[in-house]
Design brief:
The protein is α/β, with parallel strands linked by helices. It is built from 13 helices and 27 strands. Helix 1 crosses helix 5. The radius of gyration is 23 Å and the shape is globular. The protein starts with 5 loop residues before the first helix and ends in a 5-residue tail after the last helix.
Length: about 500
Amino acid sequence: MEDRDFFSEQVLDPFLDVVHKLPNEHAFQINGVFYTYKQLGEYISKIRRAINSHSNGGKNIGLVANDDLETYASIFAIWLEGCAYVPLHHNQPLERSLEIISQADIDLVIDSSPYSAFKKEAIIESARLEYEAINLSPKSTSNLALAYILFTSGSTGKPKGVPISRANVGSFMKSFWEVGFNIDHNDRCLQCFDLTFDVSVQSFLVPLTKGACTYTIPHDQIKYSYIYGLFEEHKLTFGAMAPSMIRYLRPYFEEIHAPSMRYNILTAEASPLDLVGEWSNCIPNAEIFDFYGPTEATIYCTYYKYVRNGPNKHLNGISSIGKAMNGLCAIIIDEDRRVLDANQRGELCISGGQITPGYWNNPEKNAESFFEMVHEGTLCRFYRTGDSCYMDNDGDIMYSGRLDFQVKIQGYRIELGEIEHYAREYVNGQNAVAVAFENKAGNNEIALFIEGEMIDIGLMLEYLKSKMPYYKIPTKIIVKDIFPLNANGKTDRNALKKLIII
């Protein structure tokens, strides 16, 4: 089983089969323009030719993550060449991109921008290439070779590389389809995530390996309003979205009616059940799933299917993240790495074919985040997610929050998710985020942010005091009309924290 080339089986072979058999079907709709699979194959071919003429043998290729056909074609051109792409955010500081280029040993950058910021590196200006001949035959490549490297913000401020192998991606796609999704060339699929975020990989691979059309979001558009337009005009049938994005759509819920939506995935952050319930009325025919997964476990590793008009499992109003996908194992451990029984809270750890080979050139972080142990008679390599969870008696995982979101107030250990739960309850499901901050005396306090219109803070405090002990009560409550989002579509907690006046 380990020797099977799942990347070819689940990604390259089905994609190339679609390009061959369905050349005139729409592959993408980008900024209002449709592109066929035939055009996509031609773009891939001309970029491959350029890679061959520029490459010095380096396996990691930088890719400026623009929203155009050249950028998506570049991903497949890189894969067919047996290389890995390293996305460079189009709006991030040049200094950060250069740091990533240095760390990842990149000697070639592909950029479709009219004027590239990369002058010292070998560069392919993909928008200026001319098509000559089709070239879609994949090079023979090890299943252990990398497919991409995503760089996230490290605790030191230096970008931290998470390499994902071809085997990881192939294993993910196999497990994803085994959940039970049925996608074909008639589907219209949303891709609303930045290419520097791993959910984007699922968002374009699912449609492109089934002959469906992928609808993207232009970088100069307001995401939620553009998505609203796509729902209305193009009758989307499949899409993954972050709950924060759905909150932005909430004022329009009475106007949104999307019976064409067949599958909707909520991901990237915790899903409040009350929000999911309201959203479900907008997509009355859709099967709704909550998918959970850190980048290190290749996109998603657990899932929970929402039950319409029935009981749904939750903790503090946050949906269960369900059970591990096929091919993966989930356990809960204590601080001594002992596996905990049902209903005992600890750290969620994941093992299986989707786990990254390890952080890029970071042995200290690898030693901290990965460990081996015999589990159910097999030696397994586990990734420590850093998430506080427990399994119920049915084996469903209840998500409590990040371990690093737990703080001590007056000696008591506080989980910020509980405070957020009662705050959302008081404001009828509006978004609420609790963060810890250090006061002038060096002690921890809690600030609570409420998204929406101004509220009576005194009445809210009375409500919170009726639900929680005194040491959990926020010392600051800040109302903000709209919460900032980061590039991945999640609520930007760090940006909120900067608004606290000590």
